[in-house]
Amino acid sequence: MAERAKPRRPTRKQVKEKTVAVVRTTSPRMQMWMSGQLKPEDLTDEEVARGRLMDQDGHFRGRPPSMIPRELAMAFRSESQRRLMAWFQEMVPDAQRAYKEMLNSRHLQPGDAARLRAAEAVFERVIGKVGQETHIVVDKGRSFEDVTADVVMDLDMDEIEGEVIE
Asked: Does residue 150 form part of some domain?
């Protein structure tokens, strides 16, 4: 069986020529991105949602590119998350008001359960979820000191300071 020849790595000149050719054929907005003139904050909401750059005249024409630079893909993702968090942060005052209204109300309305869950969702995304409680079951007849003695190891001060005395 004949062995296949290993593909040759392109020379620096070939890579440079290919890069120049790609830059020449890319859209003006992609060239602006590659040169650093276009920042993630400058992207429109539609560009972030679609994950592709629009033409210079503000339209999406043709098929989406099969590949985009990794930095651009990561910028789309991080910008989308940043905008989503900003949107949730804008809702915090409304969630606080709804929470307070329900807390002070003597009679809950039919839609208050959904409002409460929506307010909780806003708080969880902006502030974080409330920590879970930990329950410790202690054997009957054991004191608190006995339980903590099992958890905390008895160390001599000499061991802590680095001198082990036997």
From this structure: no
Helices (H) and strands (E) in the chain, counts: 8, 0
Same domain? For 28 and 73 the reply is yes
DSSP secondary structure letters along 84-97: HHHHHHHTHHHHHH
The arithmetic mean of pLDDT across residues 92-116, rounded, is: 88
DSSP state of 129: P
Q: How far is CA 55 from CA 22, 25, 47, 69, 124, in A?
A: 16, 13, 10, 17, 38
30 lies in the same domain as 78? yes
Name 161's Cβ contacts closer than 8 Å, sequence gap at least 6: none
Domains: count for the chain: 2
Confidence of residue 109 (pLDDT cuts 50, 70, 90): confident
φ, ψ (nearest 5 deg) of residue 4: -80, 140
| High-pLDDT (> 90) share of the chain, % | 19
- Cα 137 to its chain centre, rounded Å, is 37
* Average pLDDT of span 123-140: 74
Q: Identify the domain containing residue 113 by its residue range.
A: 92-126
